[in-house]
Amino acid sequence: MNILEERIRKDGIINDNQVLKVDSFLNHQMDVALFKQMGEEWKRRFADVPITKILTIEASGIGIACIVSECFNVPVVFAKKSRTINIEGDMYTAQVESFTHKCTNQIMVSKKFLGPEDHILIIDDFLANGCALQGLISVVSQAHATLEGIGIAIEKGFQNGGQIIRNLGYRLESLAIIESMDGATGQITFRKQHHTAPQK
Amino acid sequence: MNILEERIRKDGIINDNQVLKVDSFLNHQMDVALFKQMGEEWKRRFADVPITKILTIEASGIGIACIVSECFNVPVVFAKKSRTINIEGDMYTAQVESFTHKCTNQIMVSKKFLGPEDHILIIDDFLANGCALQGLISVVSQAHATLEGIGIAIEKGFQNGGQIIRNLGYRLESLAIIESMDGATGQITFRKQHHTAPQK
Question: How confident is the model at residue A25 (pLDDT cuts 50, 70, 90)?
């Protein structure tokens, strides 16, 4: 079991709506020392590819991406969310439908900060149905940049977002993949991964 | 001149609406190595106070706060913005009026993550009229935590947000205070500060 899986088991809470809450260390209060260990693990998994920039999306992806970027020694760009159509022509944009929030957001990245010369690692905290991630992939594609890989902290393996991304041939490394969880017992089952995770 | 002032002079752009754009290194693309140097400067300025937690607000404050937190070795909590009234009773909330965006946001912090035992350093990227900052101060006050200080990257000294905060007796350390800027010439004048900034 890797360090993130251990932490989810210790501090994750499954609430009444069968939602896993990790707000004590990941997406409200943030354990930056944990983020650094996650960064080192991604650095190990993506050691064979050249990364020039990390791309993430506001808001909770930003903290993880910044700490992870220290392991890769590259800048971070975060996609901005907006409910309004942006009329500036100097932006890559994508429509992102959120099933959770039942709304459509536009995401935007300035053309100044992504181009054909870039080798991108996408970093985000959660992957469920994958809508936000699909938007980020679209932005990388619009920029004619090379998408070297995708690092996700927690993938909900019982939703199909991860499978779609892997079917499309992208290299996706989720540190913790939840196969199932049971709010009544608090039981969380992780998908077994072939990676040899560093010992604590 | 400190490292942030130098960077603003080099890469900051004053656009047609007299707005300083620093999106190439601060709030869209993020130069994490610069953030680390800013963190070391704040650590120097706040060396005499005990900090247990850093508080910031989504979105662009999060990256700076996370890197700065490594210098203080403490967790980060970020306030979430919402346009809707949150009915959960386990949140500290404050209303924040944005003059720029002509709307009112609610900001929220879970009561689980701030309490009377905490000594808080607030970190944010910009201070202009100070509305977001006032909301964060209100949250710290509701939690009966101790506000040890406020670290701002760029203060617009020609707006009154900083003066109000200093008048209220808070310890505010802005790394770059802009006295004036001229879109026609690109000239930026910084307020002279008494701190001895580390040399490059």
Answer: very high
Q: What ipTM goes with this model?
A: 0.92
pLDDT in tens, B100-127: 667 788 999 999 999 999 999 999 999 9
Which residues are A156's β-sheet partners?
A178
Q: Is B161 helix (H, G, I), strand (E, B) or coil?
A: helix
**Buried residues in B151-171 as b, exposed as e (16+ CB within 10 A):** bbbbbbbeeebbeebeeeebe
Cα A119 to its chain centre, rounded Å, is: 17
Reported as a single tens digit per residue, the pLDDT across B140-185 is 999 999 999 999 999 999 999 999 999 999 999 999 999 999 988 9
pTM: 0.94
- Neighboring chain B residues of A77 at a CB cutoff of 8 Å: 28-30
DSSP secondary structure string, A77-145?
A: EEEEEESSPP--TTEEEEEEEETTTTEEEEEEEEGGG--TT-EEEEEEEEESS-HHHHHHHHHHHHTT-
Identity of the residue in A23, A59, A63 whose CB atom sits nearest the CB atom of B76? A63
Of A32, A78, A110, the CB nearest to B66: A32
The stretch A144-168 carries a mean pLDDT of 97
Tokens encoding A184: 């009544």
B51 vs A173: CA distance, rounded Å: 35
With CB atoms and an 8 Å threshold, state whether B66 touches A69.
no
The CA distances from residue B40 to A33, B52, B61, B78, in Å, are: 17, 16, 17, 20
CB contact under 8 A, B69 and A24: no
